[in-house]
Amino acid sequence: MNERERAGGSGGSRPGLYADEVIAVKVKAELRKRMRGLRRAAPAGACEARSQKIRERLLSLPRVDAARSIALFFPIEGRNEVSLVPLDAVLRARGVAIGYPAIDPESRVMCFRTVPNVDALEERGFGFREPGPEHPRLEAPDVVVVPALAVAPSGHRLGYGAGYYDRALAESGAWTVAVLYDYQVLADLPTLPHDVPVAYVVTDARAFEPDLDADVGADPAT
Fold first, then answer.
1. Which of 92, 84, 207 is nearest to 147 (CA)?
2. What DSSP letter does each residue of 80-104 carry, written as one string?
3. Are 129 and 119 in contact (CB under 8 A)?
4. What structural domains does the chain harbor?
């Protein structure tokens, strides 16, 4: 059996995946556990200090400065995600239209919707605060800021595994930027055909444009 032969029916494999894709799925699942545990162990004060540096770097990016519409995300409570909350008011003061991810409970399709302020976001069954369906969609945002558990030098990211962002970004022409703590930048990540790399990466220590041809173990530009 070669590595691209379909994997079949044992060990919890997903139907329709090739053998190497099954391995990638398993490795990504293990990496998620490790990266979530590592981030969860960080003190809240340290996460906020790192988040502030990330916010400052984001605001300094020319593509962000020129954007008229930006999709942010609200950090999931208890997971020590990068907090972009203070950016909401700063960007609105510049006249930027702000959207947040919203998931349709029936189709499980994610889009971005605008809200008057972050207080309008609420938990709707998916574990994070989001706009309700009564809020208008933010069509074709100029910039989408993407959360990540890890990112490789190629720009491929490790999310929580549901694929919401990959599906949404595959249909978007937005400039995408992943935000995460610097220790979450890894030398390499396994990828699947549907994984969508981001256009830029910002951490508390650096910002860089990914190299889609990056070799395993390559160090991203600082």
1. 84
2. TPPP-HHHHHHHHHTT-EEEEEEE-
3. no
4. 19-208 (3.40.50.10420)
pLDDT band at 8 (very low <50, low <70, confident <90, very high): very low
Q: How far is CA 47 from the centre of its chain?
A: 17
Q: Which residue has the tokens 């909401």?
A: 88
CB proximity list for 143: less than 8 A, separation 6 or greater: 63, 64, 67, 69, 70, 71, 174, 175, 176, 177
φ, ψ dihedrals at 34, nearest 5°: -70, -45
DSSP 8-state secondary structure symbol assigned to residue 135: S
pLDDT in tens, 85-94: 999 999 999 9
Structure tokens at 214: 């990056």
Average pLDDT over residues 60-70: 98
Question: Helix-strand-coil percent breakdown of the chain, rounded to 5?
Answer: 30, 20, 50
Cα–Cα nearest to 205, from 187, 222, 218: 222
pLDDT digits (tens, 9 = 90+) for 116-135: 999 999 988 877 899 999 99
User: For residue 119, which of 132, 109, 108 has the smallest C-alpha distance?
Assistant: 132
* Adjacent-strand bridge partners of 18: 6
DSSP three-state, residue 202 = strand
**Cβ-based neighbours of 21, under 8 Å, separated by 6 or more:** 7, 192, 193
Helices 44-60 and 85-93: angle between axes, nearest 10 degrees: 30
